Amino acid sequence: MDAPPAGLAFDEAITHEELQLAARNHGMPLEGLRYDVTPLGMHYLLIHFDIPDADASTWTVDVGGRVRAPLVLTLDDLRARPAVTVAVTMECAGNGRARLTPRPISQPWLHEAVGTAEWTGTPLRPVLEEADLQDDAVEIVFRGADHGTQGDEEQDYERSLTVEDAMREEVLLAWAVNGHPLPPQHGAPLRLVVPGWYGMTSVKWLTGITAVAEPFDGYQMRAYRLRQTEDEPGVPVTRMQPRALMVPPGFPDFMTRSRIVEAGTVALTGRAWSGWAPIALVEVSVDAGRTWSQAELAPRPPHAWTAWSFAWEATPGERELLVRAADRAGNAQPLEQPWNHHGLANNMPQRIAVTVR
Question: What domains can be seen in the chain, in order of their start residue?
Fold first, then answer.
């Protein structure tokens, strides 16, 4: 790969614009990895534009485009359909962006843009079947009510899936999360949930579902592509790359978040996930990546993260802990940064500085 263009180094100050984004959005404190289901206030949050002023009593979703039987569905219509609850791990495609050098300028995530929630809704597939897609339909476009400008384009937030991906049984039209109605910031009153895919795919404040006869080329489809320069076409960002994270052990220093633990057996725990296939392997290094040891894995639900554990015999000194994962499809976390222009899908291993007393 060619050297990335000049930009901010990792240790340079973030911009005023990035501070505004970081104040509006938030990540999951890494100690939240201890929960099978992330408490809702700890789940990561990213809002592209503004939270719409939404009235659930009058909310409708238009299902149209290349269909034979267009639909206009209220929330009551959707709630009357068969409902399911699915535990889903969701991660922002920009997770890890702030760890790249030079740093792409946008929401400055480190590791924390992830969470696992129990989403309740009705499967999308029967809705599409009822609308009766025409034979030339190739993609389904999902439109949110959030509106703004990005890349000099005024737009509603819109993303698409191929018909094949949209018809997967696990794709939901969700109106509740963790047993409660969706809160405004998480897409109330209705959102799309697409298990296995990065979070930008799960369109919030859903107002439209449109079948189209050509691949959709809206801004949010062009923005989420892996490219080395702004001008090249790049590769679409779709499913989550494998990643493992560790609950930081011991207790922290306030500013640096470096850790302090006592010598002896230290239980290291965390979670791992991939949108491509179940996790096959989690490895831990306690010597800055020179050697690796295999962690134990717990069973997991189909679309949620896997718990892992490792017993570390800690001896006094300064240590750097790393953790990495691989899935059953052969995808693994790289040790070197996968740099790209927008800072997407950076799944380099987590590193934690630890003082053992």
Answer: 16-236 (3.90.420.10), 243-356 (2.60.40.650)
